[in-house]
Every structure is written in C-alpha cells, then in structure tokens.
TrEMBL record:
<dbReference type="InterPro" id="IPR007213">
    <property type="entry name" value="Ppm1/Ppm2/Tcmp"/>
</dbReference>
<dbReference type="Pfam" id="PF04072">
    <property type="entry name" value="LCM"/>
</dbReference>
<dbReference type="InterPro" id="IPR016874">
    <property type="entry name" value="TcmP-like"/>
</dbReference>
<keyword id="KW-0808">Transferase</keyword>
<dbReference type="GO" id="GO:0008168">
    <property type="term" value="F:methyltransferase activity"/>
</dbReference>
<dbReference type="InterPro" id="IPR029063">
    <property type="entry name" value="SAM-dependent_MTases_sf"/>
</dbReference>
<keyword id="KW-0489">Methyltransferase</keyword>
<protein>
    <submittedName>
        <fullName>Class I SAM-dependent methyltransferase</fullName>
    </submittedName>
</protein>
<dbReference type="GO" id="GO:0032259">
    <property type="term" value="P:methylation"/>
</dbReference>
Length: 269
C-alpha cells in the first residue's frame, strides 16, 4: 500500500513529529512508551525522515509525557467506567488503542478536518471510537459531548499552539458543558515561546507557540479547577530512562528554569 499523501499546515504538521518520536521510542532498546502502533501508522503516511530526525533528542520527554497521560487516562476510566474521554488535538496518536476502555465508556477523538480525515484513513479504529473533524475552538461539536458523564479532557501537545483566548475558551466550554471531571495537558513556560519559535523557524516548521502557562492566572480565570498534579517532563523522562540520558534529565530537573520549560498538569472540576 502506498503511503497517504498529506497536505498539512501550521501546527497540524507537528503531529508527524510526535508520531515519529513514538515510532523511534518503540524500536529503541529501552522504550519509554512502547507504542506498538506508531511504526505501522508512520509507514502509512508520507513524511520526510530527514526533517523529523532533527527532533530525535525529544524522544524520551515526549514519550514520558504520553505515558503519564496514558496512566492518568487508565486511572480515570478505572474510577469512572461510564466516563467520557475527549482526546483533543489527537493527531495520529494511538491512545484509544493503548489504554483499556471499559465497555460503558465513551471516547471522542478531536482534531482539525485535515488531520481527522487522515486519521480515519490510516487507522482502523473500533466503531465505538468517535472521530470529530473540527477545531477544538469551534462551539458546535461540544453538543456531541455528554453533559452528565464524568469527563476527562486530554490535550497533549495542543494548548501551546492556541492563543491564550482560545485556551480559556476551550476550558470555559468544558466547564460549562460537563458537570464533573478532569483536564490534563502539557504546557510550556512563557520564556520558551521565543526560543521555541526561533527553533521552529530555523527547522522550517511552519508553526509557532502562542500560550505560556501561568497557574495562578488559570485558576483565577477558572475557579472551578482544583489542581491535582503538576509534574515536570524532565522528571518523568529521568525516571523512564537509563544511562547518560537519565543523568541528563536529572540535571535539567535540578535547574528551575529548565525544569519549568514543559510541565504536565492535571486539574479536577
Ligand atoms: C503536537 S501535535 C500533537 C498530536 C497528538 N496529541 C500527539 O501527542 O501525537 C498537535 C496537534 O494539535 C492539533 N491541533 C492544533 N490546533 C488545533 C485546533 N484548533 N483544534 C484541534 N486540533 C488542533 C494539530 O492538528 C495536531 O494534530
């Protein structure tokens, strides 16, 4: 089968980076995530391995982040077998196949139409996984979300690409629509925006970070949110790696400015 051609724009292109890193992790000697679907899916999509290779050094952090989000998802669905997962900005991630989904639960993958359509073409997902082709910032698709089910909204590698107003609008819609649940997401420190954006420009990636995390601002703006977890991605990566990489991430985690570069957050509401 020849690979699917892709016509991706802006932040849509970044889901090839995370997919590549999961594939790279899965074929490594000490996988952090061990995503057994990533290799087959990557092979089904046209991509430029030379361009993706520039991001190889992020393999452990990106896969440690995904693994912790998998663990939080399993814990949530364990506590709430009737729960609902909103997999926002899902890209080509195999999470609904990686985690155990109780028979009474609901799973909704959401990404912009170009990515959601590609997702439908390259995955053979079970019928009970719903795929929504929409921007998370559009109000219409929220009508498909059950208001009464406990709801876990996952946003992995998403919020940093949205404007601050859009991040708050998504959280507002979640809190208005859903009676109870959690929101889990990774976020970058504000100081990383110009640095990351310069790196994107240098590597020819047509996207930019637009939102930097400020916990006090988030909870002031959304007082229903109660913090459950706040972990550094370097701490996760150090726990999941061996040898020199382990010590490299331990070193990052000892320096506050580096430790704060990317953190993983979980709030209940
Ligand atoms: C870095 S990728 C992460 C993909 C996936 N979560 C993963 O970890 O592999 C960012 C994803 O966010 C999606 N995205 C960006 N803006 C979006 C929006 N406004 N609505 C829905 N998805 C969006 C992109 O299309 C892309 O799939």
């Amino acid at each position: 089968m020849s690979p699917e051609s892709v016509d991706l724009r802006g932040s849509e292109t970044t889901m090839l980076i995370t997919l590549y890193l999961r594939e790279r992790d899965a074929r490594s000697a000490h996988p952090v995530l061990g995503d057994r679907f990533a290799g087959e899916v990557l092979a089904r999509v046209q991509h430029d391995p030379g361009a993706l290779r520039w991001f190889s050094s992020d393999t452990a952090t990106i896969c440690a982040r995904a693994r912790r989000l998998d663990e939080w998802t399993v814990a949530f669905l364990g506590e709430h077998p009737d729960g609902q997962v909103l997999h926002l900005g899902c890209g080509l991630d195999s999470r609904p196949l990686r985690v155990a989904r109780p028979p009474g639960s609901r799973w909704i993958d959401v990404d912009v139409p170009r990515v959601a359509d590609l997702r439908r073409r390259v995955y053979d997902l079970p019928d009970d996984i719903e795929t929504v082709s929409a921007s998370v910032t559009e109000p219409g698709w929220w009508e498909r979300v059950d208001a009464d089910r406990p709801t876990l909204a996952l946003a992995e590698g998403l919020f940093m690409y949205l404007s601050p107003a859009d991040v708050h609008a998504v959280v507002d819609r979640l809190l208005t629509r859903c009676a109870s649940g959690e929101v889990a997401f990774d976020a970058v420190a504000g100081w990383t925006l110009p640095v990351s954006n310069a790196a994107f420009a240098l590597l020819g990636v047509d996207t930019r970070f637009a939102w930097g995390f400020d916990g006090a601002e988030l909870t002031a703006r959304h007082p229903r949110l109660r913090e459950r977890d706040d972990v550094t991605v370097s701490e996760l990566a150090s726990a999941d790696t061996v040898g020199p990489r382990h010590w490299l991430y331990r070193g990052f985690d000892a320096v506050p400015v580096l430790r704060d570069a990317m953190r993983l957050h979980r709030y209940a509401f």
